[in-house]
Amino acid sequence: MSAEFLVNFKDIYWYTENRNDLMNRLSELETYVPKDIIDSKIWILGANEFWLKGFENCGDNRWYYDVRLFFHEDKILLEISMHPKSIENDLSNYLTWIRSLTNISVDDEDGEPSEW
Predict the structure, then answer these.
(1) pTM, whole model, 2 decimals?
(2) What is the rounded distance in angstroms from the CA atom of residue 18 to the CA atom of residue 24?
(3) pLDDT in tens, 13-35
């Protein structure tokens, strides 16, 4: 079962102006799954969906991703299926980078602040 979190931007204008940069930055993460690898399998991702996958061995029944990120018009949805250490590190670094640029909150599906 996955957990969902919303990255909410206090300044929606900033987010809409910088959304492409936020998406492009994902490709610099160690756990980033390139879209050409995904599209060569049975999956075809939308332009605003991105996958991360930890590099630790987490068993044979593993999905093709541990985290999916969906960039909506006013927020980012994080769907976290597994969070091995590599995922925790990359997501923490990514969210810290965003926080260095603008004010965000990361809230769980109930709207409560999370520890991300």
Answers:
(1) 0.88
(2) 10
(3) 999 999 999 999 999 999 999 87
